[in-house]
Design goal:
The two termini are 43 Å apart. The chain is 45% helix and 24% strand. β14 and β15 form a beta hairpin. It folds into 2 domains: 150 residues, Response regulator (Rossmann fold, 3-Layer(aba) Sandwich); 137 residues, 2-Layer Sandwich (Heat Shock Protein 90). A 6-stranded mixed β-sheet has the order 1-3-2-4-7-8, sandwiched between helices. With 355 residues, the chain is an alpha/beta fold.
Length: 355
């Protein structure tokens, strides 16, 4: 028999009013109670209600599959679960719940009074392990609240570590760009123009990732961000290809490579002429050695092209960024009719393709 539903006590949905007369956004907490024994489920709700009728909104399910489905819907602050259910038994129950919703804290409430099991549960990620018959409403209330706050603190700590990592990577990238630009610049004004262009391109990529709050960017949007600012007249640059999403880890390297190609086309290549054109195409191809994302850059209609005598900083940036960060390869050709470039990148977890 399925037991799903919110408590009928309407008072339990009333917001908690803090000491300054404002509604505290932390309350009520949405509790998913996973318990197959109706008597135990009723007792748990009564214990919590006795402390505060407004602190929790309790939703009760009696099977793991129902709990997993409910977690997938979202809006659950904490899970309070027994380990023995009709469709699951032992620590696998808690583990399955955590895997379905890693950001939601899980508290185990069980009749199994075993220190080894309790320690193992915590090692697997449970926020606490409470024994039935050895708790009361006040203790259970504190346990649930502390579990939520600890999980939030863990999330904040992770974000701070991630921020620290990204800031260091960004500073290293900017320093590398500055060094590369300085070494290839003939004058301070030349350096300023080239460096500002690169820094601006990098900023646009990061701003887009921040604005969309996304783990990556669609490749067509990435191309637009990287080369759109270089288009002198409408229609000079065309872009088309498969539906591909690039992970945020690779957005910078691919985006900056495209920016360098566009910069070269603007200063020396097809985009110096009104009749010049650039075609950017991409596809995901399968070969005997695996799947690859191929990005093709083809210029036409510009001045005659000759192979440069000195390897430029842009070419260096393109080749090193793609090779180092994506494990891919770059093939540049300076044909008289126009510059062509093929970027070949192995399809891994950093590239998601619909094909």
């Amino acid at each position: 028999m399925i037991r799903v539903g919110r408590t009928n006590d309407s008072a339990s949905t009333v917001a908690h009013i803090g000491p300054h007369g404002r509604a505290d956004s932390s309350f009520p907490l949405n509790v998913l109670l996973v318990e197959d024994n109706p008597a135990d489920a009723h007792l748990i709700r009564e214990l919590l209600r006795a402390v505060s009728a407004s602190m929790f909104v309790i939703e009760w399910v009696d099977r793991l599959d129902l709990a997993l489905s409910r977690l997938a819907e979202g809006n659950v602050d904490v899970v309070l679960t027994d380990l023995s259910l009709p469709d699951s038994h032992g620590l696998e129950t808690a583990l399955a719940l955590q895997e379905r919703a890693p950001k939601v804290p899980v508290v185990v409430l069980t009749a199994v009074d075993d220190d080894n099991v309790a320690v193992e549960a915590v090692h697997l990620g449970a926020q606490d392990y409470v024994i039935k018959g050895q708790t009361d409403g006040a203790l259970l209330t504190r346990t649930l609240r502390y579990a939520v706050e600890r999980k939030r603190a863990e999330g904040l700590e992770f974000l701070l570590r991630e921020l620290d990592h990204r800031v260091k990577n960004t500073l290293a990238t900017v320093q590398s760009m500055a060094d590369l630009t300085l070494n290839s610049s003939s004058s301070l004004p030349d350096f300023a123009v080239a460096f500002r262009g690169r820094l601006g391109a990098l900023t646009r990529l990061y701003e887009e990732l921040s604005r969309t709050k996304s783990a990556g960017l669609d490749l067509d949007r990435l191309v637009e961000l990287a080369v759109g600012a270089h288009e002198a007249t409408s229609g000079q640059i065309s872009a088309s290809g498969d539906a591909v999403k690039i992970s945020s880890n690779w957005v910078r390297s691919i985006g900056m490579a495209l920016h360098e190609l566009a910069t070269n086309a603007t200063r020396h290549g097809a985009l110096t002429k009104a009749a010049g054109r650039v075609a950017v195409t991409w596809s995901v191809e399968t070969t005997d050695t695996g799947r690859f994302l191929r990005i093709h850059w083809v210029e036409s209609g510009g001045p005659a092209v000759a192979t440069p005598l000195v390897r430029g900083s842009g070419t260096t940036l393109i080749e090193e960024a793609i090779a180092y960060e994506t494990g891919g390869t770059v093939r540049m050709r300076f044909d008289p009719a126009g510059v062509t470039c093929e970027i070949s990148i192995p399809v891994t977890g950093q590239v998601a393709s619909a094909t």
